[in-house]
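Trying the structure run again after the queue cleared.
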Amino acid sequence: MIERHVLVLAAGKGTRMRSSRPKVLHRLAGCPLAEHVLRAADPLGAGSTTLVVGHQGETVERELGAVRGDLSFVRQEPQLGTAHAVLQAEAVLSGRRGTLIVLMGDAPLVSSRTTQALAETHERTGASATVLTATIERPYGYGRIVRRGGQLAEVVEEADATPEQRTLREVNSGIYAFDLAPLFAALRAVPEAGPKRERYLPGILRRYREEGLTVETVVAAADEIRGINSRHELAEAGSLMRHRKNEEMMAAGVTIIDPATAYVDVDVEVGPDTVIHPGVILEGRTSIGARCELHAGVRIVNAVVGDDVTVNNHSVIIDAEIAAAARIGPFAHIRPGSTVGEKARVGNFVELKKATLGAGSKAGHLSYVGDAAVGAGANIGAGTITCNFDGSVKHRTTIEEDVFIGSGTQLVAPVTVERGAYVAAGSCITEDVPADALAVARGRQVNKEGRAAARRKKDADSARG
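Done. Tokens:
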């Protein structure tokens, strides 16, 4: 079996992005651009994967290396063209044999199907080089593929093309497969060009042709070769990737009411018969179960949502877990570290933070439950607040099973309300409440007879006076 290696060119500065961040680390549908490229190469089963880095190389190495421990990095400094970039990998690949797949770190839409077709065609034909091409409607800026007798003769850059060649619509993607054996010697022989004395990979194709070596092509869909050079192109690529993801989900049994407004990252999983309403955003490694309903304006990030859950309009769930058949919102905020139990309800304008709401419990309206554990079957009345912060330290509140908390209650942590207890509405609880007790902690009501009428008369007299 022919050994395979992957080389990703990721050294460019990306000046048109107008960013202090390396271009290949800009995120698209939840992942850095370069990570999409690496995923497209994963099915190749490569014996090594190397990134050529340059601009902010340490940042690229740190962030991608933290996600993938199997990467090697080489530096291209200064950046003197794509052929020069591939030459930098000689130290890593010296003595290796087999196929080298060269990918562009800013071309995230290339598919694994295409990278496999490129490698398989290259190896089946015994080519020294195989070029991935595409036919596009507006080829401005791309190197044109010039064929003679149906075979690739050369790649002509836009600036060097004749008027006739500029009418050609088949272009070079910048993605290649090479036989490693002759590669590095041939790269050193690629002539320098331009005022910066740069070396570019198409130069090796002309040399191979002159030497009688085989150069093949594989044609990809036009969208797959898109490079990202600006914020506008990043947005266009995002639209295409969302379209792919939405089609994949709908094919698996998910209903998306308006695919144009469903923003779903590539690592999100959604179960069958779930309904996604307009304006829903699902980010990160979120998992949504079967038969859920996500209403308009919902945003869910890195969360696990069980089966048969309803999330009502404009609710936000981040780094949290929602068990089966729970109901959330509208306008609920489930913050990191929170867990909502089976068949529990979190209502409108309720916020949970590092809180556990037990199975069947309810927090229906206008409450804040932070740094708290609420047992099964409890009721949190409207306007309840767990006062968890004393100005320097966060404290926990424990509300055990079958507790009833009346509306407008303040629970000053650390405090425990034991199983089956009741807390009267409007109470400020500063001490533990025993099981099955009724806690009443509020000022005594005093009625001053006739006082309101006297006040109104005084105000009227003052107005006349």
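The chain has two domains: 4-225, 312-439. Worth checking whether this holds up in the mutant runs.
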